[in-house]
Design goal:
about 800 residues, disordered C terminus
């Protein structure tokens, strides 16, 4: 504390270079010498507010605080030790420890003078964790701090979400799960609280409203990835960098992504990562990397007055954040200490000189860095004439401010803006489209074949996150499954009238076009189930073979309406041991069609040509075979039966896999993981015609489904349907073109047209589930009872 004997009641707010108080005695009580005299000591430095006084100042930005030359002939200068004002300013950074696989948001006091006083004799200092995670698959990366709202924005690079940490409540809320893998940096507009981020994988600059509910691309940087991002809230400027070997750029737009201007490009810059705005002097600072040199550079907001502040050998500067006269810079280049341990650095660099004034040595790799401080909120004023988003905008989803008191209304991906109402609406077509589920966004979209550059969201309730989809053209229903809550649901084609139909996750769904019944693969039980369209009755028709429960892994199913079979692929969890199998609709006559397949996944039947397509996912090989019509399979080698083999491995990214395959007209549509997206090739021209299909805005498409009325009426409707006038109480399945059978849900058995409780299922089943053998024996016993009932009744066929 300051002694009242020598000092008035004053304190220093922030770094002491900005102190302009009137204390003029040192900590020991000596009187300060005027800065403009040379007796008894000749000053080497002068304060920024002029030399015509003898007050304590810190013109040298000394981390030990304010000082002055003294009037004592024997003491040239002394520190004043003026008390720091109460200050909750923090520098915060993301940290990932590869040894422990832990992620942290770490903090220190933002004022290095405060930290300097707390360092012990060994040079150690205390770093606190705001929050952390040691769960597998987490890595915190991007970071921004909003002091006014008392929140932090950060991204988990591996778990793919944007996190909002509430500093006072100390709680974490996750947003946009599945969309954050490519986010490198994040920023926010201090006037609207809109959130912006750069996505290097999607090659997009994105903006979201303050609730992170609605989001839209504001700038597409393709073919180059986007990296650094920063915002000048009062000037309404958005700055971001793109990377390309010998072609990197720093671009400035307004906050709607319009009016782009290239401020810097190669060879002025090389590999820009972090960007920040310094409101005190209206400059942008950025980190750059060239070979083994880390650089910190700045310029005016229009790109002029470029200045290199710091160049350091064997550094990879990443994030940068301003605090008063300092810059905090993270260095992701690792170094070995004397004990052989890796460490990284957080540098404090003086803006004026560019020289590092302090270096914090860290155990985990730092990435994003931000300052959380009332001293960094000075950019906001009370004016409301900079952007028309103040005072309640009529924008439906997102209000994006522009320069000169204008604004743009933005819509979430898949919506279009109605210029008459400013409402964001889907634009769905009624025929000839392909449905895709984007598991990254947790949304379903429709791509019209007539206008492939367009797409529209299917606006189901946001509580569902579909990752598989199927369409019922007869009843005009959509079915989808949500992996996050293990459910399957149904809606109208426009996304309305939602109904939950099953409490299990289906990694593949097909709809019987004649009965409206569902066949789906139950991911948890690794089985195939048939159910009514409303989910009121469901029966398991395929279970893992005896002894194969732990290895069986059903990937996709397909329906052969011509020969009344269900086909499916099963990887059996090992390369070269996969199979394609089939059975009747009731689960009987189960048999192997092809074996020794290498990770089989997608399967598709083209009714136009009676062709069956099977995909080995990891090899990216598609086999085209004639649809088997015979009742017994004699040759299970696919190579001998294949009419065509499409090897797509040279046309997709390394280590990518084909996860779905559909044919429409003369084109094959290929779904590729690893962000390669949706492609197609002509079946006539071959794989050399492979090209991207649809928009590049999708994050991770997982399944496809085609809707086309002409195809349905030409190839589906004419197929005979023996269940057309069925009187089955629960489910009817076709056996042949003229024969059908009644099926009952699990734990019931069929007695003619009726379904009754199966006595074999009435006992407690908990003991039968303890082993595969007892599970199979119970199944056999139930089948024997059903057979006996049919023989006695004689009405099993309807």
């Amino acid at each position: 504390m300051i002694s009242s004997k020598h000092y008035t009641s004053e304190c220093v707010d922030g770094p002491s270079r900005y102190y302009v108080g009137k204390i003029n005695r040192t900590a020991s009580g000596r009187t300060c010498q005027r800065w403009d005299v040379e007796i008894p000591h000749k000053p080497k430095r002068l304060p920024h507010d002029g030399p015509h006084h003898n007050y304590c100042r810190n013109p040298s930005s000394d981390l030990r605080g304010t000082w002055c030359y003294t009037t004592d002939n024997d003491t040239r200068r002394e520190y004043c030790n003026i008390t720091k004002c109460p200050d909750d300013s923090l520098v915060i950074w993301t940290s990932y420890n590869s040894t422990s696989q832990s992620s942290y948001l770490l903090k220190l006091h933002a004022d290095p003078e405060v930290v300097r006083k707390d360092i012990d004799d060994s040079g150690s200092f205390s770093v606190s964790a705001i929050t952390s995670s040691d769960l597998p698959g987490t890595e915190y990366r991007a970071l921004a701090a909003n002091y006014r709202r008392k929140i932090l924005y950060f991204t988990d690079f591996r778990s793919e979400y944007i996190g909002v940490w509430h500093m006072e409540k100390r709680i974490l809320t996750k947003y946009l799960e599945g969309m954050a893998r490519g986010i490198q940096f994040i920023a926010f507009d201090r006037k609207t609280n809109n959130v912006y981020w750069s996505d290097s994988e999607m090659k997009l600059v994105m903006a979201a409203d303050s609730t992170l509910t609605h989001y839209t691309p504001v700038y597409r940087t393709a073919p180059d990835p986007a990296y650094g991002i920063a915002i000048h809230s009062t000037k309404r400027y958005l700055f971001f960098s793109t990377y390309k070997s010998l072609g990197s750029k720093i671009i400035r737009t307004d906050l709607s992504g319009q009016d782009p201007a290239i401020l810097h490009q190669f060879p002025e810059i090389y590999d820009v990562t972090g960007i920040t705005v310094d409101y005190t002097v209206d400059r942008i600072y950025w980190t750059d990397f060239n070979f083994n040199l880390g650089m910190i550079v700045s310029s005016f907001l229009d790109g002029s007055n470029r200045f290199i502040h710091e160049v350091k050998v064997e550094s990879i500067y990443w994030g940068v954040a301003p605090y008063q006269e300092y810059l905090y810079v993270t260095d992701v280049h690792d170094e070995l200490d004397t004990q052989g341990h890796l460490h990284y650095s957080l540098f404090i660099i003086m803006k004026r000189t560019g020289s590092p004034v302090y270096r914090y040595t860290l155990g985990g790799k730092p990435r994003g860095v931000a300052v959380y401080s009332h001293n960094e909120e000075h950019s906001i004023d009370d004016s409301t004439n900079l952007g028309e988003c103040d005072g309640g905008s009529d924008c439906h989803h997102i209000c994006l401010p522009r320069i000169n008191a204008t604004r743009v209304c933005g819509c979430s991906m898949g919506y279009l803006l109605d210029p008459n109402t400013n409402k964001c609406l889907p634009e769905l077509v009624k025929d000839n489209y392909i449905l895709v589920t984007d598991a990254g966004q947790g949304r379903m979209f429709q791509i019209p074949f007539a206008e492939t550059a367009k797409y529209s969201i299917v606006p189901i309730d946001s509580k569902w996150k579909p990752s598989t989809v199927a369409v019922d053209q007869s009843q005009q229903y959509l079915y989808w499954s949500d992996k996050t809550d293990s459910s399957m649901s149904r809606s109208s084609l426009d996304g309305s009238r939602h109904t939950k139909v099953a409490s299990s996750y289906a990694n593949s769904i097909i709809v019987d076009p004649h009965t409206g019944q569902l066949f789906y693969s139950d991911s948890e039980r690794n089985s195939i189930v048939i159910s009514t369209g409303d989910g009121s009755a469901a029966k398991t028709i395929v279970k893992p073979d005896l002894g194969m429960t732990s290895t069986s892994n059903i990937r996709m199913i397909a329906q052969d309406i011509k020969y009344k079979r269900i086909y499916w692929t099963d990887t059996y969890s090992k390369a070269g041991e996969g199979k394609m199998m089939r059975c009747r609709y009731d689960g009987s006559q189960k048999e192997t069609v092809f074996d020794n397949l290498d990770w089989p996944h997608a399967i598709f039947i083209d009714y136009r040509t009676d062709r069956l397509y099977v995909v080995e996912a990891k090899k990216a090989v598609v086999y085209e075979v004639t649809l088997p019509s015979h009742s017994v399979i004699s040759n299970t080698s696919i190579a001998g039966d294949a009419r065509n083999i499409f090897n797509l491995s040279s046309h997709i990214a390394r280590k990518a896999s084909i996860t779905d395959f559909k044919i429409h007209g003369e084109f094959a549509y290929i779904l590729i993981d690893k962000q390669d997206g949706l492609r197609r090739f002509s079946l006539i021209e071959g794989i050399s015609s492979m090209a991207s299909f649809g928009s590049s805005d999708f994050y991770r498409i997982t399944t496809l489904s085609v809707f086309n009325e002409t195809f349905y009426s030409t190839y589906i409707m004419p197929v005979k349907n023996p269940c057309y006038k069925s009187s089955c109480t629960e489910m009817c399945v076709a056996i042949t073109d003229s024969e059908s059978a009644c099926l009952c849900q699990d734990r019931k058995m069929s007695l003619g047209l009726e379904c009754v409780q199966d006595s074999a299922e009435e006992t407690d089943t908990s003991s039968s589930q303890t082993s595969e053998l007892s599970f199979e024996l119970g199944d056999i016993a139930a089948n024997l009872l059903r057979l006996l009932a049919l023989l006695l009744d004689g009405t099993g066929l309807a």
